[in-house]
Amino acid sequence: MHEKKRDVAHKILLAAVKVFDRYGLRKTTMRDIAESAGMSKSSLYYYFKSKKDILSSVVKQESLTLTRKLHHAIQQDISPQQKLREYVVTRMHLLFELSVYYASLSEAYLEQYSFIEQEREAFTAFEIDAVSKILSDGVSKGIFQGRDILTAAKTIIIIMKALELRLVISKSMDELDSTVDTMLEILFHGLETR
Amino acid sequence: MHEKKRDVAHKILLAAVKVFDRYGLRKTTMRDIAESAGMSKSSLYYYFKSKKDILSSVVKQESLTLTRKLHHAIQQDISPQQKLREYVVTRMHLLFELSVYYASLSEAYLEQYSFIEQEREAFTAFEIDAVSKILSDGVSKGIFQGRDILTAAKTIIIIMKALELRLVISKSMDELDSTVDTMLEILFHGLETR
DNA sequence: GATTTTTCGTCCAATTTGGTCGAATCATAC
DNA sequence: GTATGATTCGACCAAATTGGACGAAAAATC
What we know:
2 copies of one chain form a homodimer.
Chain A: H1 2-23, H2 30-37, H3 41-47, H4 51-73, H5 80-97, H6 99-106, H7 114-140, H8 149-170, H9 173-191
Helix pairs in contact in A: 1-2, 1-4, 2-3, 4-5, 4-7, 5-7, 5-8, 5-9, 7-8, 8-9
Chain A binds a DNA duplex (30 and 30 nucleotides) through helix 1 and helix 3.
């Protein structure tokens, strides 16, 4: 039945992630995906109407995982400082795992696809909201200085994006973690009341 | 002069390694290399007569580095056991670094290029020779059992090639090192006189 | 300023690309 | 059985991309 149809579609998406990961989004062809999935190229079109459709599905799937896990990470009952650290570190690790999503954020040639642009904007909105909440919570608890929260949140997000670049270059998680720690050290002592 | 010509050729090779690394050998185009080198595609043909020529140059260059460093690693005045360990570990790390050479050994589609096949054979011959020398040294020192050295060397090389596969999958150097240690533990206690 | 070295834009035939379509195969029902 | 629908695939196409050729324009050297 179409129970199976969903399974096969999922199998195709897994295969697509594998080759996207290997060759990059631009270089991956429908033949590559078909080969990786162990079926003919024609069959792919029974489940997805285009290459764009496959990419879109993968991105949406990873986007869901990303925002869901990030949201979960900051639901813990911990201090605002810890929450901020948790958010940054979790975000780094997830963007490393969800490689297709990460590529979709950074590969310039994808600007032709409008759904990618939408996704980028939606994710930015999510981030501003999440970080803002952590900050305003910290302010109301007297831990962070009561300054312009939106601007502060945007600043943090900009710094995180700069860290992404390091992530691509070094690819060492431990090194990255300590960089994050160092950065948050600085960040906290600038934000905390004293 | 043609001092500069060699420099530019070298710059092109560096750029080629970068994109070979990123897209794989098959997926990399002359346009990619040109873009990465910051010059026009046509100009590449002033320095190299074909894509095959570029690949060949990179492989030969990395091949030289590989055998030179491997040779150096086993020139140290250490025990045969240590020498064997040194060889295996150094080999792993170098094959990880010299990614184009590694790809040239493993990517199947390259079988069309005869120089790759020659390179593979030459490297195998080098390995058999190197490992055999370590083994026969160990035998003459009474450390290894005096069995068929050639077969023993080939066995070790086969095991190393099996480890390469793990390397591609895990990509974690620390994990690999301990695997090598474990393997050599077993290997030594089978080889040593007791 | 003539000559040589180096770069590049443009062109081409060959291959590869994303995507279509109808026929073949498979499963499920009767 | 066989009729019906679900699923796969090979063959095919127009469009894009490929490796490579060539000569004209710059740069560098004399």
